[in-house]
Amino acid sequence: MHFKKYIRYTSVFAFIAVLFSTQKVYAMHIMEGFLPPMWAALWLVVSLPFIWMGIQSIKRITNESANMKMLLGLCGAFAFVLSSLKLPSVTGSCSHPTGVGLSAILFGPAATSILALIVLLFQAILLAHGGLTTLGANVFSMGIAGPITSYLLFRTLNKAGTSKAISVFAAAACGNLVTYIVTSIQLGLAFPGEVGMIAAIGKFMGIFALTQVPLAISEGLLTVVIYNLLTSH
Amino acid sequence: MTQYIIQTKELEFSYPDGTKALNNMSIAFEQGKKIAIIGPNGAGKTTLFLTLNGVHRATGGKIYYHNQPISYGKKELLALRKNVGIVFQDPNIQLFSANVFQEVSFGPINLGMPKAMIKEKVMEALSKTDITYLKDRPTHFLSGGQKKRVSIADILAMEPEVIFLDEPTAFVDPKTSEELMNFFDLLNHEGKTIVLSTHDIDKVYPWADYVFVMKDGTLFAEGVPEEIFQNEKVLCEADLQKPWIIEVYEALLKSKPYLKEFAVPKSKQELFELMEKP
Amino acid sequence: MTQYIIQTKELEFSYPDGTKALNNMSIAFEQGKKIAIIGPNGAGKTTLFLTLNGVHRATGGKIYYHNQPISYGKKELLALRKNVGIVFQDPNIQLFSANVFQEVSFGPINLGMPKAMIKEKVMEALSKTDITYLKDRPTHFLSGGQKKRVSIADILAMEPEVIFLDEPTAFVDPKTSEELMNFFDLLNHEGKTIVLSTHDIDKVYPWADYVFVMKDGTLFAEGVPEEIFQNEKVLCEADLQKPWIIEVYEALLKSKPYLKEFAVPKSKQELFELMEKP
Amino acid sequence: MISIDHYAYMNRLKQIHPMEKFALSMGTLVICMFFKTWLLHFSVIAFMSFLILYYAKIPFKAYFKLMLVPLAFLSVGVLGIAVTITRNPSLLTYGFKVGNWMIGVEKQGFDQAVLTFSRAYASVTCLYFLALTTPMVDVIWILKQMRVPRILTEMMTIIYRFIFVLLETASMMYLSQECRLGYASISKSYHSLGQLVSNLFIKSFQRSQELFTALSTRGYTGSLEVLEEEYVYCSKNIRFIIIAEIFFIGLAILL
């Protein structure tokens, strides 16, 4: 059958493609043009109120003291550099940390959403990781959903009296996991196929679990090391 | 026969983005000597150091350590890095631990030494660099000169055979810098090969046994300091200044040409003695 | 009568955490001169500069600009910062924009100049520092020496009357550093008062009209270079070395005491001429 | 250090008005997004690649390497769209059984995968055209023209500049740790990397204070305004952009 041959060629191409792609996946950035226009626009609209709140928040902070602009700027640059570091993963391969949890704990979710917006924009333009049309979707998963989870989890666990190490680990690992789950949801909603959205979401979560679950654990561990060092200084 | 601790043959190194940093470098470091590498910023001095201890992987040519070509196996690499220590120019980049003791113990711990031995090596390195009293001090409250000493102790604690120092006197005041140069002499007397890169020609001239001049990623000239620094052509083409001892010596020869029969003065003292001759 | 551009009386400055950085400093900078401030790291040179341009607020004593005590009102402060420029030691701290043209325009914009004038000032500053060709180059592609020039252009574009340079030759190679010293001469000829802090005594001695020695946040000594650098007591107590020109001159006097009747040589040329005298 | 950034300054189209480049790349990108014909997508890829290689003079090898960057996400993502897991074998045109489940490909999913693949690649070339010919400073300028809140563009200016400062610091720190065998095992790697990151954070904090002081000496009181050079529109380029966009729309409708 004609269609089968088609598929055979495609799978050969896909295999070669994976072989050639030496770059590691930047933790779950949906690439340029991958989402259908309707979904790209929808996620942008969903993110906008959060971004607006973030802008109001940093405007307030920077108006209060003039040096906060420099501090936030350096933090943004720090976040970009952090996400370009190679993180040794527990499985032996390397990947890049998202910095979602660390950033949420250090700067709070409002400032994090703005820093994430800018860092994602720079990653799209300077590194071709993520994209302009998918900026809204990526900001929502990585700059809003993930950090809010981390932040809330960190505060709740802290109030409950859990040890600092466990709170930080849980906040960072879950922030990373939520980012990945939200991305899977975004992909599943956009590409439901004939099996329906729920099943499609499950499928995408299954595919990315392979790389993301170990990465979430690695990032959790690293964030604990960083947090301990920072608080001891 | 001259014993070379490290030797390279037609060494080449390019960064992943294609920038060629070292080109056709054949350089040989004699064991137990005090060696200086001079040349302008961007000549590739730091890159050379990092290539010689295996952190940068040579993209061409060969490197020999004790006449054995180096291999990039994990174990061999660790042994090489242990024996070829690098002290970075800016101590702020090298120091990252909470206190000085922890900082200096980083290398020995990574070498997998037993605990008691680590402590011994650290204390030894601290005492050699005269900073035992800083042991429990946090690294970020130290002065520039103290940080420099800690960054040297960092490397000494690993007991390398050869120490590369990248512009060791660049960030410190003249007094500290003189103390450091004397300290390098001391280390050398204990048998370590010392290689330093520097801009400070006046400091290098009396100190070095041998001088390499680098330019644009290649070895431009080499020789004993007296030769190199009297070679107008080399000095001019490599944008180097003359050490003042040589300048004064040459001015002296103008009025007293007969002083030529004496050796070229290598130190201030020798120069002044020469000046006192009738 | 001598005209002082900036003068302080019993100036004191403590950081918010209580560290006393400047103590009982009475210092006076003569207009139109080339002035050097020397002293070890941590002597308070950078803090002094920042206090003189009003970024640090003096916690005691008085500062006079053109004999008027400075006030910390918004308008006066801006005028002071316009006229008292500071070039920082590390250009990476000072440069905030990735575009050289935009970077240099920052100061003039804050002064509220009209657009056309800003452009003119920027182009003038770039051409004076010889970096017009770097106008559209991103900051992160520049070499250390080029960044240094941009950081100087930053300040020149504001047309200050006095320029403080914090260790301008610390990060650059000897050739660039010589070019910079010549450039400071040029600026001085155009009427600017130049104050630089440095460790490099050999470079300062022939260059400076007047020298201040700082130690532990106080003014330790001052005078013309010939005096300061022959004053054994000051040199010893402030941990300073002698410039080699003076050292050779003193050695010369030992064999030819009659040369004492000539002036102390201030430059290499003067020294060599003296040496050629019978 | 970052290759796209490097070419953004070193290409032949750098001097072109940023708005013109922005209009061409974003206009084409939008057309790619809304039309579902892979032939259009491939003509966009060809067109943009031609501009990038022939007019901007980006070296072929560098461009080829960049074209491989999206493959990692794309291959996994497209696979996810194409492959279906279901209990109902009638859904699949091609598949195999694993236990009670069928893994395979259905016609609609496969078509969507092909479409997504071609659309994504076409969009990426549009993004590359902008990124490879327009320095970030000009991109920020475009955003200013589009009335993006000032606080965002000011932050972008600082962040962009200090990305390079911190990247250099971080890589030097990494090298110095490597010289002292800091990455000899996984657990040591975690420890070393943790120290690197926390130190980098402290450095960033210090730098921000130093930067504030340095900018204050130049009269900073809260606004980071700079003078921007003025660009001149070129009517020839604008005509070219309009013709190209009309061509692509026409192509999309006809196909």
From TrEMBL, chains B, C:
<dbReference type="GO" id="GO:0005524">
    <property type="term" value="F:ATP binding"/>
</dbReference>
<dbReference type="InterPro" id="IPR050095">
    <property type="entry name" value="ECF_ABC_transporter_ATP-bd"/>
</dbReference>
<dbReference type="InterPro" id="IPR005876">
    <property type="entry name" value="Co_trans_ATP-bd"/>
</dbReference>
<dbReference type="GO" id="GO:0016887">
    <property type="term" value="F:ATP hydrolysis activity"/>
</dbReference>
<dbReference type="Pfam" id="PF00005">
    <property type="entry name" value="ABC_tran"/>
</dbReference>
<keyword id="KW-0547">Nucleotide-binding</keyword>
<keyword id="KW-0813">Transport</keyword>
<dbReference type="InterPro" id="IPR003593">
    <property type="entry name" value="AAA+_ATPase"/>
</dbReference>
<dbReference type="GO" id="GO:0042626">
    <property type="term" value="F:ATPase-coupled transmembrane transporter activity"/>
</dbReference>
<feature type="domain" description="ABC transporter">
    <location>
        <begin position="6"/>
        <end position="241"/>
    </location>
</feature>
<dbReference type="InterPro" id="IPR003439">
    <property type="entry name" value="ABC_transporter-like_ATP-bd"/>
</dbReference>
<keyword id="KW-0472">Membrane</keyword>
<dbReference type="InterPro" id="IPR017871">
    <property type="entry name" value="ABC_transporter-like_CS"/>
</dbReference>
<dbReference type="InterPro" id="IPR027417">
    <property type="entry name" value="P-loop_NTPase"/>
</dbReference>
<dbReference type="InterPro" id="IPR015856">
    <property type="entry name" value="ABC_transpr_CbiO/EcfA_su"/>
</dbReference>
<keyword id="KW-1003">Cell membrane</keyword>
<comment type="function">
    <text>Part of an ABC transporter complex. Responsible for energy coupling to the transport system.</text>
</comment>
<dbReference type="GO" id="GO:0006824">
    <property type="term" value="P:cobalt ion transport"/>
</dbReference>
<keyword id="KW-0067">ATP-binding</keyword>
<keyword id="KW-1278">Translocase</keyword>
<dbReference type="GO" id="GO:0043190">
    <property type="term" value="C:ATP-binding cassette (ABC) transporter complex"/>
</dbReference>
<comment type="function">
    <text>Probably part of an ABC transporter complex. Responsible for energy coupling to the transport system.</text>
</comment>
TrEMBL record, chain D:
<feature type="transmembrane region" description="Helical">
    <location>
        <begin position="62"/>
        <end position="85"/>
    </location>
</feature>
<dbReference type="Pfam" id="PF02361">
    <property type="entry name" value="CbiQ"/>
</dbReference>
<feature type="transmembrane region" description="Helical">
    <location>
        <begin position="120"/>
        <end position="143"/>
    </location>
</feature>
<dbReference type="GO" id="GO:0006824">
    <property type="term" value="P:cobalt ion transport"/>
</dbReference>
<keyword id="KW-0472">Membrane</keyword>
<feature type="transmembrane region" description="Helical">
    <location>
        <begin position="22"/>
        <end position="55"/>
    </location>
</feature>
<feature type="transmembrane region" description="Helical">
    <location>
        <begin position="237"/>
        <end position="254"/>
    </location>
</feature>
<dbReference type="InterPro" id="IPR052770">
    <property type="entry name" value="Cobalt_transport_CbiQ"/>
</dbReference>
<dbReference type="InterPro" id="IPR012809">
    <property type="entry name" value="ECF_CbiQ"/>
</dbReference>
<keyword id="KW-1133">Transmembrane helix</keyword>
<dbReference type="InterPro" id="IPR003339">
    <property type="entry name" value="ABC/ECF_trnsptr_transmembrane"/>
</dbReference>
<keyword id="KW-1003">Cell membrane</keyword>
<protein>
    <submittedName>
        <fullName>Cobalt ECF transporter T component CbiQ</fullName>
    </submittedName>
</protein>
<keyword id="KW-0812">Transmembrane</keyword>
<dbReference type="GO" id="GO:0043190">
    <property type="term" value="C:ATP-binding cassette (ABC) transporter complex"/>
</dbReference>
